[in-house]
C-alpha cells in the first residue's frame, strides 16, 4: 500500500513537470521564427534521418555528436529533394547513442536549425528476406545477416500489416516454419537480437509473404450419357479450379475454369480413355497461386456408383486362355484385374496389351510366385521391381496393386512390397476343383457388392467358367470393374502395405 501511494505521488510530480516543460517549449517556439522538424530511426543500413523539403532551401547540413551537449561534427551537406529529404548515417556503432542536428541553409543565406534528435543505434533491421516453400509445404525463410546480432526472432501473421506474433528464434540467418497449412498465406517479419549485458532488439523487418499452395484436388471421372463428369472435394484455399485435358499429342489443353466442385466434358467417346488435370488456384496480393496437379485417368465407360459392382481377378497368368477371357469381357462391357507373374509377361504381350486397351487392370503377382514370407526384404523388393519393369515394358505403366503368392504375408512383406496388397473375399477354389460349374456357382451363390473374386486364368475350366460368369453377373445387375475402380467408387484410398480382402461401400 505504501508503494502504491508513493507511485501516485510520483505520477503527479511527473505530470507537473511535463506541464512545465510544455509551457517552456511553447514559449520557445513562439519566439523562434521557424524550426526544422526532423525524424530518425534505425533501418537496415544505420540511422536514417528524414524531414520535409522546403522550396526555399539551398542545402542541408547534417551534424552529429556523441554527447547531448557536445560538440557537433558535420557529417555531410546535401541538397534536398521535393518529395522529402533523407540522410542515412551508416557509420554508427551498435548500442551507442547519437545526437543529430540538421540545419537548413536557405537561398537567402538564413539558417534554420532543427531540434537535437537523440537516437540509440540499436541493431539494424534485417533485410533481404526471402521465402521458399518446399514440396512438403514447409516455409523456409532466409535473410541477410545483421551486424552485431547474436540471433533473430521470427514473427508471423495471417494479415499483411497487423497481428504479428513471435513463432521462434534462430541463431542463423534462416528459419523453417513447419506449421503452415496448405492453401494459406502467411506473412513473416524478422527482428535482430543481441543478448549481452545490455540486450538490444531491432525493429521488425518488412513483411515477407509466403503463399502456400492448396493441396492437389482428388478427382474422380464418371461417364454417363455421353458425358464425362469430373468431381472433386473442396480444397482449402481454392477460389477456382482449372481443368486440363490431355490431347492426342499428349499435351494438356485447358478446358475451362470453375468455382464449382465439378466439371462436365461433353467431348468424349464411349470406350476411350481420357486423362484430366485439375488445379486449384487462389489469388492474393496480385499473385496467382496454383496447387499441385490433381490427376484423373478415366475411361468413358458407364459405371454407376449406385449400382452393384464386383471385381473379378485372375492370377498366375497371363496364359493361353487370357485372350479369350479378355474378348468376353470386352463383349460384355466388363473389366477385370489380372494379377500377372513377371516371368509370364513376355510370352503373352498381345493379350496384356488388349486387356489394358479395354480398361482392364494389370497388377503384380510377383515375378516367380515365391512365398514372400520366406524371402528377405531385398529379395521381396526385387520380385516386385522386376515385375514392374516387365509390365511397364508392355503396357507403358507400372502396376499399382499387388497380390502376394498364396495370399501370404508378414510384416516384412507388408513393409517392402510398396503397394497395396489385394487379397480376395470369394475364393472359387478353381485351381483345386478344376470344375467349370463349381467355379461359376462359387461366385453366383455368394457374390455381394464390393466383393473381390479369386480365379486363375491358366486353367481351361476357369476360362470356361469365366465365359459363363461374365454375362451371368451382368444379368444379375453387377458391374464388373477393376480393383482400382472398385476402390475409387467405394471410397477407399488404398495404402501401401495394407491388406484388403473386399472393398464394400465405405460409410
Ligand atoms: Ni498365385
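Q: What amino acid sequence fits the structure above?
A:
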Amino acid at each position: 500500500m505504501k508503494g502504491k501511494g508513493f507511485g501516485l505521488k510520483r505520477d503527479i510530480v511527473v505530470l507537473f513537470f511535463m506541464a512545465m516543460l510544455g509551457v517552456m517549449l511553447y514559449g520557445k517556439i513562439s519566439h523562434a521564427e521557424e524550426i526544422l522538424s526532423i525524424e530518425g530511426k534505425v533501418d537496415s543500413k544505420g540511422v536514417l534521418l528524414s524531414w520535409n523539403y522546403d522550396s526555399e532551401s539551398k542545402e542541408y547540413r547534417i551534424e552529429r555528436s556523441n554527447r547531448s551537449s557536445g560538440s557537433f561534427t558535420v557529417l555531410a551537406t546535401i541538397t534536398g529533394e521535393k518529395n522529402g529529404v533523407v540522410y542515412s548515417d551508416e557509420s554508427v556503432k551498435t548500442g551507442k547513442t547519437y545526437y543529430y542536428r540538421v540545419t537548413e541553409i536557405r537561398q537567402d543565406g538564413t539558417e534554420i536549425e532543427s531540434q537535437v534528435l537523440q537516437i540509440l543505434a540499436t541493431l539494424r533491421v534485417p533485410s533481404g528476406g526471402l521465402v521458399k516453400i518446399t514440396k512438403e509445404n514447409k516455409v523456409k525463410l532466409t535473410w541477410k545477416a545483421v551486424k552485431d546480432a547474436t540471433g533473430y526472432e521470427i514473427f508471423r501473421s495471417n494479415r499483411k500489416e497487423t497481428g504479428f506474433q513471435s513463432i521462434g528464434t534462430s541463431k542463423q540467418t534462416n528459419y523453417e516454419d513447419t506449421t503452415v497449412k496448405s492453401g494459406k498465406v502467411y506473412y513473416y517479419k524478422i527482428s535482430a537480437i543481441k543478448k549481452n549485458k545490455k540486450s538490444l532488439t531491432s525493429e521488425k523487418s518488412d513483411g515477407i509473404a509466403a503463399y502456400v499452395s492448396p493441396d492437389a484436388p482428388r478427382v474422380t471421372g464418371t461417364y454417363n450419357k455421353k458425358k464425362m463428369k469430373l468431381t472433386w472435394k473442396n480444397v482449402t484455399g481454392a477460389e477456382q479450379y482449372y481443368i486440363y485435358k490431355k490431347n492426342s499429342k499428349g499435351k494438356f489443353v485447358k478446358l475451362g475454369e470453375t468455382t464449382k466442385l465439378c466439371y462436365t466434358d461433353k467431348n468424349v467417346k464411349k470406350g476411350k480413355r481420357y486423362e484430366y488435370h485439375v488445379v486449384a488456384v487462389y489469388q492474393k496480393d496480385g499473385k496467382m497461386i496454383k496447387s499441385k496437379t490433381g490427376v484423373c485417368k478415366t475411361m468413358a465407360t458407364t459405371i454407376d456408383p449406385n449400382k452393384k459392382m464386383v471385381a473379378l481377378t485372375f492370377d498366375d497368368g497371363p496364359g493361353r486362355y487370357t485372350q479369350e477371357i479378355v474378348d468376353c469381357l470386352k463383349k460384355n462391357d466388363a473389366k477385370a484385374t489380372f494379377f500377372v507373374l513377371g516371368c509370364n509377361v513376355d510370352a503373352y504381350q498381345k493379350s496384356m496389351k488388349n486387356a489394358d486397351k479395354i480398361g482392364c487392370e494389370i497388377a503384380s503377382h510377383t515375378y516367380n510366385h515365391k512365398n514372400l514370407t520366406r524371402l528377405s526384404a531385398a529379395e521381396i523388393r526385387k520380385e516386385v521391381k522386376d515385375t514392374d519393369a516387365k509390365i511397364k515394358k508392355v503396357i507403358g505403366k507400372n502396376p499399382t496393386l499387388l497380390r502376394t503368392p498364396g495370399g501370404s504375408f508378414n510384416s516384412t512383406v507388408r513393409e517392402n512390397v510398396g503397394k497395396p496388397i489385394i487379397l480376395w473375399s470369394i475364393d472359387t477354389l478353381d485351381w483345386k476343383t478344376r470344375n467349370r460349374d463349381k467355379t461359376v456357382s462359387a461366385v453366383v451363390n455368394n457374390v455381394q457388392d464390393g466383393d473381390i473374386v479369386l480365379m486363375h486364368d491358366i486353367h481351361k475350366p476357369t476360362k470356361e467358367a469365366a465365359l459363363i460368369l461374365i454375362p451371368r453377373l451382368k444379368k444379375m445387375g453387377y458391374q464388373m470393374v477393376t480393383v482400382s475402380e472398385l476402390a475409387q467408387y467405394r471410397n477407399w484410398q488404398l495404402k501401401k502395405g495394407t491388406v484388403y480382402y473386399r472393398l464394400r461401400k465405405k460409410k
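Q: And what stands out in the fold?
A: Residues 1-6, 26-32 have pLDDT under 50 and may be disordered.
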